[in-house]
């Protein structure tokens, strides 16, 4: 059976209600991510945490060294679980993520986290392009309302559009319940 890893993308304090960049559904998504983290730990599978920090102190969120840039308490890593620090949308860009996965012989990735339309999308597409078999857990991801050309796009529609696009050619897109039922 191919080795798999759970990639926990940017579930950080600034994305929660008291943070600088709150997402719609961040708590519910983090609760589902926590269930998956526990399932991967119990199975002895690799869990990799991604933490985004911008390189400038005037960034709108995830400023270097801030409390907002820290992993949220619902999804803290254990001492034996790596945290990959990134400065770009794509978690593979200028990080050790691919080397870490290759070192452990990982072939399948399960992706959860934030934001659906940005870093989840970026890591999923990059992973597929690098040859990994990717699954995205849609209800363990969160995003926010976006605006384009004077039109506000509600978070649920942003999320649905990106999950539909990823599911078309880059990943299998399933719920937490579906994934856990199929992998017990």
UniProtKB/TrEMBL annotation:
InterPro entries: Isochorismatase-like_dom, Isochorismatase-like_hydrls, Isochorismatase-like_sf. Pfam families: Isochorismatase. Its EC number is 3.-.-.-. The keyword Repeat does not apply. Keywords: Hydrolase. The keyword Cell wall biogenesis/degradation does not apply. Residues 5-147 form the Isochorismatase-like domain. It is an enzyme of class 3 (hydrolase). It comes from the Bacteria. GO terms for molecular function: hydrolase activity. Coiled coil: none annotated. This is Cysteine hydrolase family protein. It comes from Pseudomonas viciae.
């Amino acid at each position: 059976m191919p080795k798999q890893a759970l990639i926990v993308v940017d579930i950080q304090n600034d994305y929660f209600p008291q943070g600088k960049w709150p997402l719609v559904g961040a708590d519910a998504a983090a609760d589902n991510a926590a269930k998956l983290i526990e399932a991967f730990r119990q199975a002895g599978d690799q869990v990799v945490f991604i933490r985004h920090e911008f390189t400038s102190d005037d960034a709108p969120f995830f400023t270097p060294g801030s409390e907002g840039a820290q992993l949220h308490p619902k999804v803290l890593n254990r001492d034996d679980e790596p945290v990959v620090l990134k400065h770009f949308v794509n978690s593979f860009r200028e990080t050790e993520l691919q080397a870490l996965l290759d070192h452990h012989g990982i072939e399948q990735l399960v992706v959860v986290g934030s934001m659906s339309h940005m870093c989840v999308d970026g890591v999923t597409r990059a992973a597929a392009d690098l040859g990994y078999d990717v699954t995205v857990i849609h209800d363990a991801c969160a995003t926010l309302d976006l605006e384009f050309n004077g039109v506000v796009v509600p978070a649920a529609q942003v999320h649905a559009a990106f999950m539909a696009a990823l599911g078309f050619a880059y990943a299998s897109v399933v719920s937490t319940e579906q994934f856990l039922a199929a992998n017990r």
